[in-house]
Amino acid sequence: MSFFDQIQSRSESINSLLCVGLDPHQKELPADQWSASEESRCEAAYQFCKRIIDATAEHTVCYKPNAAFFEALGTKLGNVTLRRVIDAIPNDIPVLLDVKRGDIGSTAAAYAEACYEEKDGLNAGGVTLSPLMGWDSVSPFITGKYADKGAFVLCKTSNPGSNDILALNLQQQTVFEKIAGLANEWSSSAASDSPTSSTTPRLGLVVGATDPSALSKARKAAGSKLWILAPGVGAQGGDLDAACRAGLNDEGTGMLIPVSRGISRATDPAAEAMKLKEGINAARKAVLDERGEKRDQPGDSIAPYQKEFLEFSLKEGVLKFGSFVLKSGRTSPYFFNAGLFSSGSALHKLGKAYAAAIMSSKELVDKDGKVTFDVVFGPAYKGISLGALVCSALYSDFGVETGFAYNRKEAKDHGEGGILVGSSMANKRVLVVDDVITAGTAIRESHTLLQKIEATPVGVAIALDRAEKRSLEDPLSAVQAVARDLEIPVVSIVALPQLQEYLKLSSEYDEDVLKLVTEYRSQYGV
Ligand SMILES: O=c1ccn([C@@H]2O[C@H](COP(=O)(O)O)[C@@H](O)[C@H]2O)c(=O)[nH]1
């Protein structure tokens, strides 16, 4: 079983997200033993760790010895003691060696041997790494003969100094968000190279429990599959509830809370570990209940990605409030023009919002978390760029690999010819991506085209669903009519209820705007 599979399976079987740290600080060892000799220092450190292991084994998902404290014991026996400690850990408990390595590929390969080799190395199952030297410094730890190992890369560490570099702003995101996104990409590409083609992640992130806002951004940037190691609860003062709210994935897991001094300095480490495990589980339950309640508010609640989408749509002028006469003759208090998404940052965010909507939908993701389509199809013209953005964001944010195809409006009679370009769609399940559905004509045309080439259309993703009746005599919206006639789900990033909800929560708009949108919804909404 791979490292992260072991973490997952042990976490489930003992119902815990606790990771016990093994840090034999000099201060915690008897002073006379420390000063007597390297041998006695090492024996004291070993006994210190063994006592914690014996007291906490039933509560911890894994153990995290920090190499620094063992190196500090002495050059003769420091590493030997670390290996003795690792050997004292029961076989069914994974060992995460906190070494924070990072070096050029050939040196990283030597570090990996030292950390992982069973005979002459430390026999760890996973490690912590610095990602700042890039993919070639990380890959030796998780590919080739170490494909079953795993690594947590430093993303936004728990110390105050983590703001000096990791929180700096790049063009569209912070350094740590960039790291989170890269870790997701690296993890997927490492997994796709493997002969077993397992989709289990190979990488996780270290994001301090001391910064819940960073935790939430890192979770968003990394997607829901990567495990986050969130140190800082206990001696560093991190807020457990806030950290869980920000970092847990949709299933209320995907996060390990490592605690070292908070356990080793307790008078009863066993009781403290149990208390921590239960405290973490109570926080998980509260978060899931909170999220469940939100989900239960039919149609109106607004997810973070939806709020963000509305915010940047307003900023870009794509979404406007005012008085707009529509083709239908109705006067609408808002107007949405996706053609105005015209900057790199807006397009990047747009793709991410579509991907988040698709991955949050019950209709396009099966119960095992797999998408129900093989190819993303962008119909000409607007759908072409949208489809490409969606396909790319599904991969970068969720590690979901699909094909991409689009059509030309005019068949080409030279070169590759024909009207379809990109991934083959025959006998494949296809998701159609477009901006909005007005009358539904374009989507119906795409549907006919796909059926002609023996592709199976399985859904449509759009940016905004106006969710309004087509006419007062026809109670269905254009989206509902498409879904009914074509018998496929239509998923949107947002619909009219979220727009209304956004206005309720936002302090930026005049109350009149909310009033007009509310009136419009009650008059025309489905
Ligand atoms: O961002 C980070 C990365 C690693 N650590 C390590 O975790 C433990 C925390 O010890 P506590 O006693 O629970 O505070 C320690 O080994 C650190 O080196 C971290 O704290 N923050």
From TrEMBL:
Homodimer. Belongs to the OMP decarboxylase family. Type 2 subfamily. Belongs to the purine/pyrimidine phosphoribosyltransferase family. PyrE subfamily. This is Orotidine 5'-phosphate decarboxylase. Its EC number is 2.4.2.10, 4.1.1.23. It catalyses: orotidine 5'-phosphate + H(+) = UMP + CO2. It comes from the Eukaryota. The keyword Lyase applies. Coiled coil: none annotated. Pathway: Pyrimidine metabolism; UMP biosynthesis via de novo pathway; UMP from orotate: step 1/2; Pyrimidine metabolism; UMP biosynthesis via de novo pathway; UMP from orotate: step 2/2. Keywords: Decarboxylase, Glycosyltransferase, Lyase, Pyrimidine biosynthesis, Transferase. It comes from Skeletonema marinoi. One of its GO terms (biological process) is pyrimidine nucleotide biosynthetic process. One of its GO terms (molecular function) is orotate phosphoribosyltransferase activity. Residues 17-276 form the Orotidine 5'-phosphate decarboxylase domain. Pfam families: OMPdecase (PF00215), Pribosyltran (PF00156). Catalyzes the transfer of a ribosyl phosphate group from 5-phosphoribose 1-diphosphate to orotate, leading to the formation of orotidine monophosphate (OMP).
